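Postdoc handover notes: sequence design on the structure in folder B. Input tokens:
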């Protein structure tokens, strides 16, 4: 049933998303805009979904190459179709498979992931949504293990989690010699609780830089900091 699928139009690309899989979220777009990139990096996008993060980081760095892996066959097909119609089609390779059994001939300079995070919840009615939002398949500990295996010695990783799940991930990551270097809290509006946390890390242990960003201001308008990050992508920000 494709009736709930829609097109998200960005300034330089567009993406079909939803059914199967989850629709593009505001916090995922913020995460994609926040991730720092280098120009000659080889990137692994774990659980690419419709290909959002892959497209956003390719827009930043024209020489960057992304391996985008998605376990759900129908969602991977959407990602492949999006890539084929993309101005970044020479930069993005979509693979259907399980990241836990993924093998690559080289380590990655950057690993990005907006992982599933609900644990011990009732199953979603749709199987693709179940895979996308529940951590049954890729737990924080398993993600840390994958990053340890796939990351280059000088590489970085970026993940997006709610605060509780981020704590679980960090505990597992540190046991594997992976450390947080920067954490940015996503807060819906002033006075609200932290919705998600964006983490940038590496194999290097250093003092953690902690920041926060609000999606909206007290008047309900998009916060200037949010606008600044999303200006290269969102049509509503000239």
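Designed sequence:
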């Amino acid at each position: 049933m494709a009736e709930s699928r829609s097109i998200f139009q960005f300034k330089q690309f567009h993406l079909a998303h939803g059914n199967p899989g989850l629709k593009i979220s505001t916090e995922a777009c913020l995460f994609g805009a926040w991730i720092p990139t280098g120009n000659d990096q080889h990137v692994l996008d774990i659980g690419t979904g419709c290909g959002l993060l892959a497209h956003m980081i390719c827009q930043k760095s024209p020489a960057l190459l992304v391996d985008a892996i998605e376990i759900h066959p129908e969602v991977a097909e959407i990602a492949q179709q999006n890539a084929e119609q993309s101005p970044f089609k020479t930069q993005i390779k979509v693979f259907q498979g399980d990241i836990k059994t993924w093998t690559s001939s080289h380590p990655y300079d950057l690993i990005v992931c907006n992982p599933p995070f609900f644990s011990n919840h009732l199953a979603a009615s749709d199987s693709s949504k179940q895979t996308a939002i529940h951590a049954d398949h890729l737990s924080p500990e398993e993600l840390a293990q994958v990053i340890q295996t796939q990351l280059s010695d000088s590489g970085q990783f970026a993940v997006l989690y709610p605060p509780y799940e981020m704590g679980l991930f960090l505990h597992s990551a540190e046991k594997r010699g992976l450390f947080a270097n920067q954490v940015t809290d996503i807060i819906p509006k002033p006075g609200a609780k932290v919705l998600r946390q964006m983490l940038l890390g590496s194999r290097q242990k250093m003092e953690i830089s902690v920041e926060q960003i609000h999606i909206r201001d007290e008047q309900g308008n998009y916060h200037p900091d949010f606008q600044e990050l999303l200006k290269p992508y969102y049509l509503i920000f000239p």
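Context for whoever picks this up: The CA atoms of residues 178 and 203 lie 5 Å apart. Don't rerun without checking with the PI first.
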